Amino acid sequence: MVTAQAECTATEPPDGLKPIAAFSIFQSNFKNEDYPFALKYGRWILCSTPTTIEGYPGFELSRQLDRFTTIYQEIAKKQSDPSLKATYLDSALMVFDIKLELYKDDKEQVYKTHQQMGRYYLENNSIITDAVSKAYEQFQIMFDMNPEKTTTTARGYYVDNLLRNYVNKGETEKAQKVINEASKYATGALVEKLNNYQKDLFESPADVIAYYTPILEESPKNIEALKALEGAYEDQDNQAELTKVRRKLHEIQPTFESAKALAETERSNARYGDAIKLYKEALKMAKTKAEKKQTNLSIANAYINQGDIKTADTFADAAIKIDPNFGQAYITKATIYNAAVTNCVADRKLEAKDRMVYWLIIDYLNMAKAKDPSVANTVNSQLGNYRPVTPTGEDKFLRLDNLKDGQKVKIDGSVAPCYAWINKTTTVR
């Protein structure tokens, strides 16, 4: 057995051959995959490390040294004795050490050698002790030497493996340093991977805030930081900070989503006028029917909150016009007409004529579940509240001009001036 440790007793070509002849035999055997013979006629190269061979102008020592790592690895595969297999693999590692010493002033060769060593450890992890950890050590050296190259090489393979290792081992600080640097150069799918690793490092919204706040201070228009803080403040239900972040996001990059998110924040803080303004901005940027109908309904609900039910009714109608089967919009219409009754009797008692409006409310609730079965449970729970307060038989006979079931009546100014804007027909029941 000849290993790298024993190589350097032979600094001259074997059998009295001239260097070019021995090198030719070495090359031929290597190409034919006769690795033991290649080793016999090439070991002098490993020991003497010549930079040139007379008569062969294309000689490149680094390439030949790479061949020796292949030779030892391939010979190791043929060994049945585990100790011999390990010895040959160790010899290959010694070749890497030789390369690192020879080319210590050549950054490109040093980088390449650490890259080769890392892959070598992974390929032989079932034999070499703690090979995976050793491979990651090489990847870290690569990253320290040239973070941009390591990030962009092999579609982020090395950075991905490094981070997976650090995250799995709970080495948060090391992982964070890699993410911070790699983020400068990552593109495509690697960006998403880095974001996912970043999320894995955070144990709480407070961690997210602690990490991204300094980044935002340094770069106030950093969209990634703003979005991360938005999620963290939302998780904490910190409405004050959430509003600030959403305003900044919308200011820097106004989109349908940013306008809608900020509108919802303003509405939750009872700033209905601001919410309506932002919802209307979102409506202008809405592209799909779903976005448009839902935004119209959100505007309607904000107007209800503000007490402007007449305008709310207009936007609920707009939502229904976009999608006639939008059950929630019909429920909102019912809510609007219930508010109309409340407003009309604010300074007087509820009368039989006011109770007629509840028939109209029931009409819209029934339409909601007929057109959209998904809202049936909500509708049924509300119907139970309205049916008992509709006009009684006595009301219909004595107070409502003897109305008959099935008769059509109009809810408008004839009922009371405060209902004039409704102008809808309902059925006596």
- The secondary-structure class comes to mainly alpha
- What integer value in Å does the Rg equal? 39 Å
Tell me the quaternary state. single chain
Q: What gross morphology would you assign?
A: rod-shaped
Classify the beta-strand content into a percent band. under 5%
Ends distance: 104 Å
What is the tally of helical segments? 22
Can you count the beta strands? Answer: 2
Give a quick account of the main beta sheet: strands, pairing sense, barrel closure. 2 strands, antiparallel
Mean pLDDT: 94
Low-confidence stretches: 1-6
Order of helices and strands: HHHHHHHHHHHHHHHHHHHHHHEE
Please state how the strands of the largest beta sheet are arranged side by side. Answer: 1-2
| Helix percentage range | over 70%
